[in-house]
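Suppose a colleague, Dr. K., hands you the sequence of a protein chain of 773 amino acids and asks what its three-dimensional shape might be. Before reaching for any lab equipment, you can write down a predicted structure in token form. Begin with the sequence itself:
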Amino acid sequence: MTAKSAAAAARATVYGYPRQGPDRELKKAIEGYWKGRVSADALRETAAMLRRSTWRQLADAGIHEVPTGDFSYYDHVLDASVMVGAVPQRHREAVNTDALDGYFAMARGTQDVAPLEMTKWFDTNYHYLVPELGPDTVFTADSAKQVAELKEAVALGLAARPVLVGPVTYLLLAKPAPGVAADFEPLTLLDRLLPVYAEVLADLRAAGAEWLQLDEPALVQDRTPAELNAAARAYRDLGALTDRPQLLVASYFGRLGDALPVLAKAPVEGLALDFTETAAGQLQDLAAVGGLPGRRLVAGVVNGRNIWINDLEKSLATLGTLLGLADRVDVSASCSLLHVPLDSTAERDIDPQVARWLAFARQKTTEIATLARSLAQGTGAITAELSANRADLASRSGSSLTHDPAVRSRVAAVTASDARRAHAYPERAAAQRARLGLPQLPTTTIGSFPQTTELRTARADLRAGRIDTHGYEERIRSEIRDVLTFQEKAGIDVLVHGEPERNDMVQYFAEQLTGYLATQHGWVQSYGTRYVRPPVLAGDISRPEPMTVRWTSYANSLTDRPVKGMLTGPVTMLAWSFVRDDQPLGDTARQVALALRDEVNDLETAGTSVIQVDEPALRETLPLRAAEHAAYLDWATESFRLTTSGVRPDTQIHTHMCYAEFGDIVQAIDDLDADVISLEAARSHMQVARELAEHGYPREAGPGVYDIHSPRVPSTQEAAALLRKGLEAIPADRLWVNPDCGLKTRGWPETRASLENLVAAAREVRAELPPRP
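The predicted structure, expressed as tokens, is then:
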């Protein structure tokens, strides 16, 4: 096919779409089902309605081929585990008794059975359920979900393409099951898994699939020759099948690199590649392998992870180059649109001119369709769209919102000494112990406490004008008093005020910093039914006035015990926002760090003795390629130290991280120079404690003993057992006792019982220790 005919054949598609619905209908239905207010049939009907609505909207927007199978009640990797029969032994009875309840038991656990481990999906803030595999794992095909959803779309008269997690990525994401040797490599199960995928492919072909997408984002990471050979074998075998749809192997989140020649040689009919942030390198690599003659290329030229409008002319230039490298070039986003909100037109509180800079999922589908139309019909078909796009891009680049000379001058004046504590850790530790007077194995929580119905009602009443600011703030004071009273009664050593005034750990600060935009409806799935509204980091950042001092000081006035000041760190402020793409991330991080430094210093001046600056996203934002790690970690750790290094030695600096593979960044955790770090550890059975010990981490740490992402209440014995395991790696004088993460999403009954058990476990294990010298 010539470049001209390839252009004429260009079509628009997407890899996946937000699942929740415009009013988070899916979240409400699932949580209603968990509480017994919604029947299983009603939940299924809500899900089917949302799928149908999504597919129709995509078709109406000009998307020629809609995805199926990307919809999930909780997580698409968990769906893949069900599809291949990889159900852990402890969940099989629940799954066999009731498939839906068993599915949720795998995701959330029950009082008697722990859930699957949860961690971040590559370098995004989406969390997936980690498959548990071992040498005895037996895979069995269950394509019911995938087939049913394909048939739903076909019945609507739509061209539909099922989307599955690819077999190589699935195994590379998996971990050894509990009781299996830690050095077991799930990828050794590939030959056992491929026949199951072959069955699923045959089932989907029989159900009407002409094309099928297999997602292999793990191949954009650094991969060993053995792993690349496994990918070659997988797609040689799947490609050789006769009873299958045409195969489209998709990668995203970066440049394929060494994996591109492997997939280019594979007997599959198409590849889907990311041509956004690494477009130049991807183009170069594709040309080097001779392109994809006779095959389909889906070009991800619209950024599926950020919310800025596309530069249509730049994308058309990329697509023009690609027309000579493949038999057919289709247009898509760089990845699933799961990672962006649904529709920017719902944002009524953003300045209309600024709103024109934004593209959420619906706007991105329009951009994709526009680019495909231009390829097929020529740029004359989109003259008006190109003109409007140029004007919007120029408006953004020239806006005073994006450039504040005072902020830029302050960043330019930062010196190396500004990002270093004035005293070494041993001197700080002695000063802090003298000031705080804490016991061995001190107990604390991570920050947030349950957001009660009364509190949510008060927040809604304030927005609706049913109560005034005074009435709302009295509700906040009441919540703080209740949280402190409970903690004191429970025997917790270092208290928190519970954060009742905060809607979200990033949004709360973004709403008080210049340069940020907050959305009202910009919900994005983080995990399961947990949705967040990432703010938009649109311009230069500064702090007009203190953000947390008032409520922290109020809490301190109510107790003689230390109350932590709670802030979100600069890397997490970036990672859980939609960041600007017009300057290096490190520059933006320094701006945020300086604003937070002012807050830290004001908290100390107000008498706060313990200040926690959370950085749960430090590992999450680590680039997928090792060659890029050092540069990222340099500015990431510097920005944390810039935030925290202006305090006295007797002010204790904490940080917190959760749900990531911390072993990859232990040196960076050390480089933060925080006095205390708390980390998720309950689901991973204290793995991080061992990793810290192997590194020789010299400061204090609190690996979590209470998994807060499950409704189950850990017993005193369970928490004590985890604590003893932590003591095998971390000395008692440096070990803290705490939950994995904040308690905002939990209910009060389970929180109360769990924390009481946590304190009892600390006392039990503390009594076993020799007296402190």
